[in-house]
Amino acid sequence: MNPFRKNESRWRPRQVLLFSGHMIDAPDRDKPRFPADKEAVAAKKIADTLDTLGAGPEDLALTQGACGGDILFAEACLQRDVRLHFLLPFEEPTFIQRSVLTGGESWRDRYFAIKPHAKIKTAPVELGPLPEGVNPYERCNLWLLYSALAYGTEKVRFICLWNGEGGDAPGGTAHMYHEVNDKAGQVYWLNTRELW
């Protein structure tokens, strides 16, 4: 799949698949949230949701690209020839250190396997320096959401892999879930408390 197709500026997706989900647990995490042994369960549920939505080449997928849910979502989208955009809160090397390698080296390999098939944008380049007092992850969530909404509220399908609890820090899946509920509406919640 070529992410830079002809007439990209005039292309409009049939639906925009916005994703946020838990990162895979770091090996030293005290309270399990997304254990590595649940990866296959999560991948299947994400794939099933994309199939329910009829995801394909006429659609656009937006996510960050972190280890765990984001990468599983990206891989499933590429299998369905969905156009994929990663919007990163930091420059790519910093993002990889903070949000990809925390799950282990194999997640970096998977990120780089996806990269040639995705359009990648970074907040520092696209939005400018982070304003004082603004959380970079919350800013990125809002950037993802407003990028999706720009195609029309009725096109946004938010898929979240989430346990329903507050996050470890600001700007996680809980933040995105509440922002989407306030502004868009079509939410497909993959509740990890029910999945494992």
Characterise this structure.
It is a single chain. The protein has a single domain (16-195), classed as Rossmann fold (3-Layer(aba) Sandwich). It contains eight helices and six strands. The protein has a six-stranded parallel sheet with strand order 4-3-2-1-5-6, with helices on both faces. Helix 1 links the parallel strand 1 (16-21) and strand 2 (60-63). It has helices at residues 39-52, 69-79, 92-100, 105-114, 123-126, 136-149, 173-183, 192-195; strands at 16-21, 60-63, 83-88, 118-122, 156-162, 187-191.
The number of distinct helices, counting runs of at least 4 residues, comes to 8
What is the topology, as strand order, of the major beta sheet? 4-3-2-1-5-6
- In the CATH scheme, the class would be Alpha Beta
Q: Roughly what is the average pLDDT, rounded to an integer?
A: 95
Query: What does the overall shape look like?
Result: globular
Structural class: alpha/beta
Strand content range: 15-25%
Number of domains: 1
User: What fraction, in percent, of the residue positions are helical?
Assistant: 25-40%
Q: Would you report the number of β strands? A: 6
- Given as residue ranges, the uncertain stretches (5+ residues, pLDDT < 50) are none
Radius of gyration: 15 Å
Largest sheet at a glance?
Answer: 6 strands, parallel
Helix/strand order: EHEHEHHEHHEHEH
CATH topology: Rossmann fold
CATH architecture: 3-Layer(aba) Sandwich
Q: Separation of termini?
A: 33 Å
